[in-house]
Design a protein that fits this description.
2 domains; Rossmann fold; seven-stranded mixed sheet; ATP hydrolysis activity; alpha/beta; 9 helices
């Protein structure tokens, strides 16, 4: 199966500042991928490179087997919903759908009308009069009705209230299943993405720190708690991701394929949020250079 996104030593520089560097990832098709990281980590830059809005400064990137934005056919394969869920305030809902039909050769008018009706959006209402959640749903409808193979969303729920965020993500999850759609969704709200994503990428310090399927990543990491011990005294197969110490106790997040056999240590499972935060903390990720990718 063609990878939905492949990047090799990908980098993007703005002036003298690297927004993204040394990015090497291989995302298989068919996943809802959560792109996570602190503000300024490079999430938006990676998404704009993937959608063809930016050119790499170094390295290369391929999306669905082609160069992003290179041809009309390639553009038709990818839908993009920007951070501010852009719609035109002066246009009605129906006018947005007609505009979508004119701009997109694979436009699914029946699906767009059905979704608008199900959401209770009034076709004659101007977008400027819609609530934030309704505007986000209209933007999502436009992205879905394009019938892309990959839908990219840049923090589309950042400004929504919790109920609107839940409804948006539920609709996105249902559409991804119904249309066998690959999704790449960025957010700094780990708890929201935990509900919908089965694959995650963590960016910090402008680099990829972790990438892989959620189940495999969680199985490969543990929290170890026990008597205070320096990390160099841990078994060689336990790679330390983060560490915390009190006077008598140490707590480590480690990556390992081997079970813990030391009775002095208690091993517990991590939540996705725990794991993401461990990798996002630049003070404990080998100065931003430890990278994990778990594949099939």
């Amino acid at each position: 199966m063609t990878a939905v996104l492949e990047a090799q030593a990908l980098g993007r520089k703005y002036g003298k500042r690297w927004a993204l560097r040394e990015c090497t990832i291989d995302i298989p098709a068919g996943h809802v991928v959560g792109l996570m990281g602190p503000n300024g980590a490079g999430k938006t830059t990676l998404l704009k490179l993937a959608s063809g809005q930016l050119e790499p400064s170094t390295g290369g990137i391929s999306v669905l087997g082609g160069r992003p934005g290179d041809t009309p056919a390639q553009l038709a394969k990818v839908g993009f919903v920007a951070q501010d869920t852009p719609v035109y305030a002066g246009l009605t809902v129906a006018e947005h759908l007609r505009l979508g039909a004119r701009l997109n050769p694979r436009w699914d008018a029946a699906m767009a009308r059905e979704r608008i009706a199900r959401l209770g959006l009034v076709p004659a209402q101007r977008a400027g009069k819609l609530s934030g959640g309704q505007r986000a749903q209209l933007a999502l409808t436009l992205g879905l009705a394009k019938r892309p193979e990959l839908l990219i969303l840049d923090e589309p729920v950042a400004s929504l209230d919790p109920l609107a965020r839940r409804e948006f993500l539920q609709g996105l999850r249902e559409a991804a299943v119904a249309h066998r759609l690959s999704v790449l969704l960025s957010s700094h709200l780990v708890s929201d993405l935990e509900r919908i994503c089965d694959y995650v990428i963590v960016l910090a310090d402008s680099r990829v720190q972790m990438a892989g399927e959620v189940d495999q990543l969680l199985a490969a990491h543990h929290r170890l708690t026990g008597p205070r011990r320096d990390p160099d005294r841990l078994p060689a197969d336990q790679h330390v991701i983060s560490a915390g110490h009190t006077e008598r106790q140490s707590t480590y997040v480690v990556r390992t394929d081997a079970p813990n056999h030391d009775p002095a240590w208690t091993a517990t499972q991590l939540s996705l949020e725990d794991l993401v935060l461990a990798y996002m903390d630049k003070r404990t990720v080998d100065n931003g250079r430890a990278v994990l990718e778990v594949r099939r």
